[in-house]
Amino acid sequence: MKCTFCVDRIDEAAVTGRTPGVHPEVTPACVNSCISGAMEFGDIDDPASNVSRLLGETQHFRMHEELGTEPGVYYIWDKS
Fold first, then answer.
1. Is residue 57 part of a domain?
2. Rounded to an integer, what distance in angstroms lies between the CA atom of residue 62 and that of residue 55?
């Protein structure tokens, strides 16, 4: 089954005014439960969001971006 990024939580954020990636109750469950902190979620168009900052500071890629499907998952690539 394909991941929906817990769309029910994101829909709740739109109704309650909370922000996914900031407020845990409207952030996808996988991000909340990732004990290593390896997953982030947020608004890439908001320059103040943790996701935008992280992508601005690191080298990253999206799987099969060449297909033109605009994938929403970014992978951080630590080249060291």
1. yes
2. 12
Residue 1: inside a domain: no
Residues 19-70: tens digit of each pLDDT: 999 999 999 999 999 999 899 999 999 999 999 999 999 999 999 999 999 8
Residue 75 pairs in a beta bridge with 61
Taking the C-alpha atoms of residue 4 and residue 77, their distance in angstroms, rounded to an integer, is 24
Query: 33 lies in which domain range?
Result: 7-76
Any domain includes 30: yes
DSSP H helical segments within the chain, as ranges? 7-16, 29-33, 50-57
d(CA 49, CA 41): 9
pTM of the model: 0.81
Q: Where are the beta strands (DSSP E) in 1-80?
A: 60-61, 75-76
